[in-house]
């Protein structure tokens, strides 16, 4: 079936269809996820209304957590689609789509067109890519520009025209605008290690790297210079030292991890394709070796890929680039003290390429694969189906298990039926494995990933809207009145920055009883968002009788939030 789609145009149609369902379907259906989405949406909105495209602010104050590229794209999206959830997430979804198409072109260039198609489908249906594409933060953009950098490097490596150097510098400059110094440090490390491994010294000492340095400087530096001037160096000091160097030296916000943290993240984040991840790494490792030791010749001849097809490049070099890519990124973030799952997102694309090539070799019977791989695939799909179904039932509140501590999302239990998708796929894969039909088994896994993650991401995620207080409370009350001068305050609610976006104005943070009392006594109409438990403890001591005009449970604070007003 896969081989019937030979033309690049049909490949793009298929990949656009998969990506559309995974990234764009009901993209604006879920209200904002705090913390990051609330801050990023608000920064972009403040940039839009202020007209200042240089200094990112949140709640009227400097926000130095991330560079500016994501905010710029969100502002442009707001101007096109309006100020809403879909518009704010659209740049991430577009970046995820671009990553899928780049993975396809890389697989097609490195190996074969069928390997490229498989790579595109695999990357499109991985939950890590889907999550990043439906979440408004810089990760999807950083991932896209990382993959674009290595795609440019690979496509132009043999000829090395002047534009190749210019494009390399430009793509790394955009990655730095999206995420920071890692956008140039890590790709440079990968390219340097690859050149050393390949012994391509002519590439390393080419004087035209000056073009790359100039292109990088023209792309990345102007904004950093301007924001430093406007903030008197405060942005760069806080961003570089606190949010980059300090994250590498100490676990910020208690984001720690054990030595194998990112291996677990990759297994979970690339499911169900992680079934084949170990084999892809194993065969990819041996295929990256040209001249093994005599004692290892047997291992090498049984696993290495000797190019048997017409290719413009050396297939061993392709494996080496992918190996350097994965190794440098995983090692760098494993050594860093602060660990978050999204840090290794740029590793997903090369893993997808290795998986795709392994599966294509399996289909062509050009590699000896243990007979139990098919059964392992069956068992893995069964485990995924059972675990997912049980998890949705438990989180949905069936049985109201005490381990959940009351943190249920009622309605999720209805989505437990999706657990049948991998279970039915396991039954089909069992038949395909017995009949030795790897092509059909691979197609079944692809369809399973699509039918499993697309509905969950597009529709099941919207069930959480009833458990995120800011959007619901703003809808219940009349606080969104931009034509009237009012004041918005919150008490003990610093972890709900999406409130700023939904009220479309700054929020005053009240930290003690006196500031709360003074705020409620204001002559202007005021609205205070406060946890109900805190208000019940303060109501009698305040000596005031504000009116409660809204109440909603919030899953982040695990309590009811009420809205008080002096009107």
Provide a descriptive summary of the structure in words:
With 567 residues, the protein is mostly helical. The chain has three domains: 2-30 and 64-363, no CATH class; 373-462, no CATH class; 469-565, D-Maltodextrin-Binding Protein, domain 2, CATH 3.40.190. It is 60% helix and 6% strand. Strand 1 and strand 2 form a beta hairpin. Helix 1 packs parallel to helix 20 (438-458) and helix 8 runs parallel beside helix 11. The longest helix has 26 residues, at 85-110.
The assigned structural class equals mainly alpha
Q: What is the strand arrangement across the widest sheet?
A: 4-3-5-7-6
Count of alpha/pi helices? 24
Report the principal-axis shape.
globular
Distance between the termini: 67 Å
- Provide the helix percentage: 55-70%
Q: In oligomeric terms, what are we looking at?
A: single chain
How large is the share of residues in beta strands? 5-15%
Number of domains: 3
Short description:
The protein is mainly alpha-helical and 567 residues long. The chain contains 24 helices and seven strands. The chain has three domains: 2-30 and 64-363, no CATH class; 373-462, no CATH class; 469-565, 3-Layer(aba) Sandwich (D-Maltodextrin-Binding Protein, domain 2), CATH 3.40.190.
List keywords for this structure.
3 domains; 5-stranded mixed beta sheet; two-stranded antiparallel sheet; 567 residues; 60% helix; mainly alpha; 6% strand; D-Maltodextrin-Binding Protein, domain 2
């Amino acid at each position: 079936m896969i081989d019937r789609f030979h033309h690049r145009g049909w490949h793009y149609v298929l990949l656009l269809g998969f990506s559309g369902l995974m990234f764009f379907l009901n993209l604006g259906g879920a209200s904002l996820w705090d913390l990051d989405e609330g801050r990023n949406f608000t920064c972009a909105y403040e940039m839009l209304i202020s007209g200042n495209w240089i200094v990112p602010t949140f709640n009227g104050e400097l926000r130095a957590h991330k560079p500016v590229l994501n905010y710029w794209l969100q502002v442009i999206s707001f101007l096109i689609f309006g100020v809403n959830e879909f518009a704010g997430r659209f740049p991430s979804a577009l970046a995820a789509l671009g990553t899928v198409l780049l993975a396809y072109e890389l697989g097609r260039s490195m190996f074969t067109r069928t390997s490229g198609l498989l790579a595109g489908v695999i990357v499109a249906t991985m939950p890590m890519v889907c999550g990043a594409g439906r979440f408004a933060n810089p990760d999807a953009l950083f991932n896209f520009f990382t993959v674009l950098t290595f795609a440019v490097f690979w496509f132009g490596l043999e000829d090395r025209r002047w534009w190749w150097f210019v494009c390399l510098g430009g793509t790394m400059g955009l990655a730095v605008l999206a995420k920071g110094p890692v956008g140039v440090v890590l790709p440079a490390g990968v390219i340097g290690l690859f050149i050393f491994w390949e012994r391509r010294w002519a590439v390393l000492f080419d004087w035209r790297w000056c073009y790359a340095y100039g292109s990088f400087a023209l792309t990345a530096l102007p904004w950093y210079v301007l924001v430093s001037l406007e903030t008197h160096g405060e942005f760069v000091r806080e961003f570089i030292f606190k949010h980059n160097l300090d994250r590498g030296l100490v676990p910020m916000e208690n984001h720690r991890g054990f030595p194998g943290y990112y291996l677990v993240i990759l297994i979970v984040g690339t499911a169900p394709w992680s079934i084949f991840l170990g084999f892809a790494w194993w065969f990819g490792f041996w295929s990256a070796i040209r001249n093994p030791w005599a004692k290892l010749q047997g291992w090498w001849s049984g696993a290495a890929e000797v190019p048997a097809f017409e290719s413009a490049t050396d297939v061993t070099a392709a494996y080496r680039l992918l190996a350097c890519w994965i190794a440098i990124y995983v090692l760098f973030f494993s050594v860093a003290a602060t660990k978050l799952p999204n840090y290794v997102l740029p590793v997903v694309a090369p893993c997808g390429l290795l998986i795709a090539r392994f599966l294509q070799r399996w289909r062509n019977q050009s590699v000896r694969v243990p007979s139990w791989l098919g059964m392992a695939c069956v068992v893995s799909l069964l485990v995924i189906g059972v675990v997912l179904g049980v998890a949705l039932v438990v989180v949905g509140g069936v049985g109201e298990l005490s381990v959940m501590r009351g943190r249920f999302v009622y309605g999720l239990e209805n989505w437990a039926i999706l657990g049948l998708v991998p279970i039915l796929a396991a039954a089909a894969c069992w038949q395909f494995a017995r009949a030795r039909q790897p092509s059909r088994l691979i197609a079944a896994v692809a369809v399973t990933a699509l039918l499993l993650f697309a509905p969950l991401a597009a529709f099941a995620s919207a069930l959480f809207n009833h458990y995120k207080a800011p959007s619901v409370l703003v809808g219940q009350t009349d606080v969104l009145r931009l034509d009237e001068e009012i004041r918005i305050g919150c008490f003990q609610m610093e972890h709900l920055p999406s409130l700023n976006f939904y009220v479309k104005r700054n929020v005053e943070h009240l930290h003690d009883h006196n500031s709360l009392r003074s705020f409620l006594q204001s002559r202007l109409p005021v609205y205070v968002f406060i946890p109900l438990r805190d208000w019940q403890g303060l109501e009698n001591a305040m000596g005031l009788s504000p009116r409660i005009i809204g109440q909603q449970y919030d899953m982040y604070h695990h309590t009811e939030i009420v809205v008080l007003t002096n009107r």
